[in-house]
Design goal:
- This protein is α/β, with parallel strands linked by helices and 476 residues long.
- The protein has three domains: 5-90, MurE/MurF, N-terminal domain (Udp-n-acetylmuramoylalanyl-d-glutamate--2,6- Diaminopimelate Ligase, Chain: A, domain 1, 3-Layer(aba) Sandwich); 105-318, UDP-N-acetylmuramoyl-L-alanine:D-glutamate ligase (3-Layer(aba) Sandwich), CATH 3.40.1190; 327-471, Alpha-Beta Complex (Protein-Tyrosine Phosphatase, Chain A).
- The protein is built from 16 helices and 23 strands.
- It has helices at 7-14, 56-61, 74-77, 90-104, 118-130, 147-153, 174-181, 202-209, 231-240, 289-304, 309-315, 349-360, 384-389, 411-416, 429-439, 457-466; strands at 5-6, 17-19, 25-26, 28-30, 40-43, 66-70, 84-87, 108-113, 135-137, 161-165, 185-188, 221-225, 245-250, 257-264, 269-275, 278-284, 327-333, 336-343, 370-375, 400-406, 422-426, 445-449, 469-472.
- The strands form four sheets. The protein has a nine-stranded mixed β-sheet, sandwiched between helices. It has a seven-stranded mixed β-sheet with strand order 21-20-19-22-18-17-23, with helices on both faces. A five-stranded mixed β-sheet has the order 2-7-6-5-4.
- Strand 6 (66-70), helix 3 and strand 7 (84-87) form a beta-alpha-beta unit.
- Helix 5 (118-130) packs across helix 10 and helix 15 (429-439) runs parallel beside helix 16 (457-466).
- The protein is globular, with a radius of gyration of 23 Å.
- Bound molecules: adenosine-5'-triphosphate and magnesium ion.
- Residues 114, 116-120, 141, 143, 167, 189-190, 290, 293-294, 325-326, 343, 345-346, 350-351, 354-355 line the site of adenosine-5'-triphosphate.
- Adenosine-5'-triphosphate is lined by residues 114, 116-120, 141, 143, 167, 189-190, 290, 293-294, 325-326, 343, 345-346, 350-351, 354-355.
Length: 476
Amino acid sequence: MSLLWTSEALVAGMDGRPLGPMPEGISGISIDSRTLQPGDAFFAIKGETMDGHDFATAAIKAGAGVLVVAEGKLPSLGRLTAPIIVVEDVLAALEKLGAAARARSEAKIIAVTGSAGKTTTKEALRHVLSAVGKVHASAQSFNNHWGVPLTLARMPIDCDYAVFEIGMNHPDEIRPLVKMVRPHVAIVTMIAAAHLGFFRNLDEIARAKAEIFEGLEPEGAAILNRDDGRWKLLDKMAHAAGVEHVYGFGENARSTFRLVKCELHADHSDITARIGGHEVTARVGAPGRHMVQNVLAVLGAAHLVGADLDRAALALADLSAERGRGKRHVLRLPGGPITLIDESYNANPASMGAAMALLNATPVTGEGRRIAVLGDMLELGDHSAKLHAALADLIVGTGTQTVFLGGPEMRALAERLPGEIRTEYRAGVEELKPVLLAALKPGDVVMIKSSKGIGFAKLVDALLGKFPAQTTSKQT
Ligand SMILES: Nc1ncnc2c1ncn2[C@@H]1O[C@H](COP(=O)(O)OP(=O)(O)OP(=O)(O)O)[C@@H](O)[C@H]1O
Ligand SMILES: [Mg+2]
């Protein structure tokens, strides 16, 4: 078992009080007893609805090496049969341990924020940098007040690179997180109307993302989307925060990391880019223009942290779209296959655009149709009806003429779509499911997308459950 932390460093890192004999160390850190691995330290974090202290026994059963619990909760926990470290506040202890992990690390650190594409970019960086060194990166979208310190505390001492996703719903959330991460490179993927309900306009969203510059290491670099409407504002804010090295990525001729040539195909893209004086030609294994944009930032960051660009570029060929973020399935129907594009992880106006472009670029066969299955985009506040209705612009006049809609907000789009688009609107995912399953025909390409809270992942599961997989898109 390789140790992530010796018990001595663990206790010292978070200023805790050990109770009972400690093990030599711990192999990982968990805040969820269901996914805890034997030998992990279990941090009993108190969330909005659950309190980790209620799962102390479950964590011991799962094989926790150490439990980290709050002083105030100790009396109510009874006798526990595992070593315990007592702290005043468990989240604060995780933050301290995160800071200790950062302090002992010699890794090159990259932080990624933006309105869409954070996880996609983070995973692409993980993939590309793994070709040249040992990489640590956030799990899933662990990008908030507990996800970031958890990822930091999990950072092995010997990694060469670490990649952190940093997210926000409100102003002042990114600042404390990035100050813990202290990245050498900060990427802002793009600015769009995500969580617009909590902001007055896109400029305000950009200002909140700009907090990421405040945590950059001295001599650190910001990588910004040169094609984005908020480029100028972000560039200004980066300089105002004292960042001297600000680089743009995109198609714009003034981009430092510039797309020179781009061929988009249904299941991959071929690109040529100028990266820091090098001309890089690469195949990008996951399709879509948005992926190409993300890849420019990835190559730029890889270059800035000193990774071998040729090897990084080569690794892009076997990049693949993640579950819920463009992953493709070819499913067998009686009479022929259908293609399912799983975009069900989340949705906002920008990612709807990216996903519709993917759908429109995917060929149908025979009598097949392109079908968009769209659910509500949440957290758009007063702008919601307008932004939902505006999705019509992504559909009218494109190769997608069949649309299934679900959720209260999608009514605005249903009402906007003209008669020539076949539109099925239902109140929610349960009502939509039978209609969709019954409508599919061989040759169809179906793209499913909504905000997480609306739960269109259930439609993906229903399709995967009903129709056997033929093969994955990578093999076709
Ligand atoms: N650069 C991009 N521009 C626009 N849309 C994008 C971009 N990259 C990815 N997307 C779209 O956004 C969706 C979500 O991507 P991803 O999960 O990477 O975003 P995220 O920023 O991590 O989201 P979250 O805030 O929910 O963690 C993808 O499925 C894709 O449709
Ligand atoms: Mg994410």
